[in-house]
Amino acid sequence: MAEVTINTAETLKGIIPIMVTGLGILLFLTTFYFVLFSMFYKKLKQLQALGLQGLGGTKVAIGSGIYFIPSFHQLERLDISIKKIQIECLGNESLIYKDNLRADFKATFYVRVKQEAASIAKVTQIMGTANASRTATIKEFFEPKFTEALKIAARKFEFEGLLDSNRQFRDEIINLIGIDLHGYVVEDCSIDYL
Asked: Residue 41 and residue 162: Cα distance in Å, rounded?
């Protein structure tokens, strides 16, 4: 009986170093994993999207984070906050109404990128990530479409009645602009000056 106890104690003496070594390796690998995790995981700030291009195709992250490997992927941030675009129709460019009166007009459009992966990918392909976040570039891109919608909507309303039907005029402008804005959406439109 004593002999069995001695053999068990000797066996435990041989196993303990192996177990300690195994735990040390496991601890090292766990620490290494979390270090890599923190290095290659990018989180989003509020009102941003991340676009990842490279190995594995194009991926978009909204409201979370994304893993990337610097040598294989290109990571770009996209500002998806609302942008304010002011359109002015003054002087020779003023709006002509149904009753053939001409009037200066200023409107502000509130535009943002749709918070969908497909829309964000479309915007980055058309405009590029840096340009899609600049208000001046967005204005340059949409100004002809917005101005045309203003001119068409104005021809449907009489100037005198426009002050009373301001809301219908605004709705008509947004309706004419439509929903196909290459990944963008018009959140609202306000008439600033008439």
From this structure: 54
Q: What's the chain's length in residues?
A: 194
The number of beta carbons lying within 10 Å of the beta carbon of residue 28 is 10
Cβ contact 57:65 at 8 Å: no
Q: What CATH number labels 81-193?
A: 3.30.479.30
pTM for this model (two decimals): 0.73
Residue 188 CB contacts under 8 Å (≥ 6 apart), including other chains:
109, 110
Q: Is the pLDDT of residue 176 over 80?
A: yes
Tell me the per-residue pLDDT of 78-99, one tens digit each, with 9 for 90 and over: 888 899 999 988 888 888 888 8
What tokens were used for 2? 């004593």
